[in-house]
Design brief:
Elements (H helix, E strand, L loop, with lengths): L2 E4 L8 E5 L13 H4 L4 E5 L17 H14 L5 E6 L1 H12 L4 E7 L7 H16 L2 H12 L2 H6 L1 H13 L4 H13 L13 E6 L7 H10 L3 E6 L6 H4 L1 H15 L3
Parallel strand pairs: 2-3, 2-4, 4-5, 5-6, 6-7
Antiparallel strand pairs: 1-3
Helix pairs in contact: 2-3, 4-5, 4-8, 5-7
Function: Involved in pyrimidine catabolism. May facilitate the hydrolysis of carbamate, a reaction that can also occur spontaneously.
EC number: 3.5.1.-
Keywords: Hydrolase
Length: 261
């Protein structure tokens, strides 16, 4: 599995693991790396079956598989304690990791994540599956942008977005793998385990998220014993990209609160 370890500029730094959403790409976090790597060792990775981590995923592929894969990677790097930041699908991986290995996690940040399927998000993924079956990767990525970003952000950043889409095309995942990943996140349900969570958690949501209703984050924060909710009015589904300064400031505040000196 492809990964990068960015060393911190200070000694004895805590480790932050960044896990992206459905696309699975380490590049998703490029606007966070400079801000984080001053005080933290940062690990990013291309999830198995995406980008630079080619693999044939099994038909029964699940969030549990993804948690196991990340756990093995962290063990190979001798990481026994870290902060975990997950966006959407990455947040589900973090929640599974919190069940499997709670002692590994200093804190969790869950961005536009959810604890069980909801009708709106499932419809969005059904549309994605239909596009994968009948259209080009270019059309899939254009549709994805409508779910990730606010309309005005697209208008004001169209050149940048088109460059990012060209990069995504060069590393576009195998269709079978992408369908398996959509199936995995569509079936994820850990409602019965939420009360068992004791990892300090920040839940982040955006009211203008077109993919995941912000109320799902509110529900999640209310159910987790050690969670707080930060709710933004603007940013869409990918606020780490659309409002990086605001997002990075919040992230650094959260990590500082739970880092060991």
């Amino acid at each position: 599995m492809y990964f990068e370890v960015l060393p911190a500029k200070k000694t004895k730094a805590a480790t932050v693991v960044l896990s992206s959403g459905l696309g699975g790409s380490a590049h998703f976090w490029h606007k966070q790396l400079a801000a984080l790597s001053t005080d933290y060792q940062v690990i990013v990775y291309d999830q198995l079956g995406t980008g630079r981590s080619p693999a044939a995923l099994p038909k029964d592929y699940s969030i549990q598989h993804m948690s196991n894969e990340l756990s093995e990677l962290l063990d190979s790097l001798d990481i026994n304690l870290c902060h975990f930041v997950g966006h959407a699908l990455g947040g589900l991986v973090g929640m599974q990791l919190a069940v499997d290995r709670p002692a590994l996690l200093q804190s969790l940040v869950l961005i536009n994540a959810w604890s069980s399927p909801n009708p709106h998000t499932l419809r969005c993924f059904n549309i994605r599956k239909a596009i994968l079956e009948s259209c080009s990767a270019e059309i899939y990525l254009q549709t994805q942008a409508l779910l990730l970003y606010p309309p005005d952000w697209i208008v004001n950043n169209i050149d940048l977005m088109q460059k990012e889409e060209q990069l995504a095309l060069r590393h576009f995942p195998d269709k079978t793998n992408l369908l398996a990943r959509i199936s995995a996140l569509s079936q994820f349900d850990n409602e019965a385990q939420l009360r068992e969570f004791h990892v300090p958690t920040l839940v982040v949501a955006n009211k203008d998220d077109m993919l995941v209703p912000w109320q799902r984050s509110q529900w999640l924060a209310n159910k987790l014993p050690a969670a707080t909710l930060t709710l933004f009015d603007y940013g869409g589904h990918a606020s780490s990209i659309t409002t990086p300064e605001t997002f990075n400031s919040l992230l650094l505040e959260q990590l500082g609160r739970f880092s060991v000196a």
